[in-house]
Structures are given as structure tokens and as C-alpha cells.
Amino acid sequence: MSFDLSEVQRFIAAQSPASKVYIGADSCRLSQGNTWFADYTLVVVVHIDGNHGCKLFGETIRERDYDQRVDRPQMRLMNEVYKVADLYLKLAPVLADRSVEVHLDISPEPENGSHCVVQQAIGYIRGVCNVSPQVKPHAFAASCAADRYKELASLPGQAARLRAA
Q: Which residues contact 5 (CB under 8 A, 6 or more apart)?
């Protein structure tokens, strides 16, 4: 399931400059037979006028996962970061003069597996997107919106309704 990028751009462009945009990504690992895959969910949350409701756009992409260590999913997590940066750059023409945040589902806490890439991920987003990303626990677009989008999209009949919303 994917979103139409031009539709997202049109929606953002039609909103007032007070609208805020949050771009996030999350992934989960799954096995199909003897092969590991990762589902990458990307979301764009448009907080209308910064104090009204939100419009959620999202897509989930399945790709092969080559991480060797489940407890340190370095490759999968950096793929999330690359995907969210790419989405930011594709939306950049309509993001100017808006409050925009990039949210990463990565924890700065050493006891979490995602800690292994936190500095690399933050540096990448700063360098490519020229914004300082939010990480857990302040990354709701990645931690909550992407999870919820994937959950809703997986329900029978929801895919068509989510595209029409």
C-alpha cells in the first residue's frame, strides 16, 4: 500500500502556513519461510493550522532484511532513516516556511537495540534534511502514527478506506 506523493504535496500546499508537518518511519522484521523481511511504514502527519485535526498519509513497503543480529538491527534502522530522508526531500518544495519535524523510531537509551544507530541516524538527517530529528520518546509520528497506520492498513477492507480518507 502506498500514498500518492502528488496528493500529499497538494494537500500540504493547500494548508495554511500555520499547519505543522511531521514525517516519520517505523519498521518491523518478519520471517517468510527461511527469509527475513522488513516492513517499512512511512507516514506524513499534517496538523492542520497547528491546532486542529490531523490528516495522515502513509505507506508500507516490504523489503528483504539482511541484518545478522536481531538485537542490533543496524541495517534495518538505517534503511528507515534513508527512507524518511528521501520522503522529506521529495516533499521539500511544499515544506518551505512550515514547521516540519522528522521523527525516528530510535531510542537514545543504551539498553535498547536501536541505540546502536542513534548518532549515525541523527547526523544523517541533519546533513541531508538540515533539520534536527526527534527520537524516542518525542517521535510520535514514528512511534505512534506509523504503528497505528500499519495496524489499520492491515485490517480487511481498510486499505481502500485509508486511501480514500
A: 90, 91
CATH number of the domain bearing residue 44: 3.30.420
pTM score of the predicted model: 0.89
Q: Report the domain count for the chain.
A: 1
What is the extent of the structural domain holding 119? 5-164
Neighbours of 140 (CB within 10 A): 16
| Closest residue by Cα to residue 150 from 70, 60, 67 | 60
> What pLDDT digit, counting tens, does each position of 96-110 carry?
889 999 999 998 988
128 class by beta-carbon count within 10 Å (0-12 exposed, 13-18 middle, 19+ buried):
middle
User: Can you read off the three cell numbers belonging to residue 136?
Assistant: 524516542
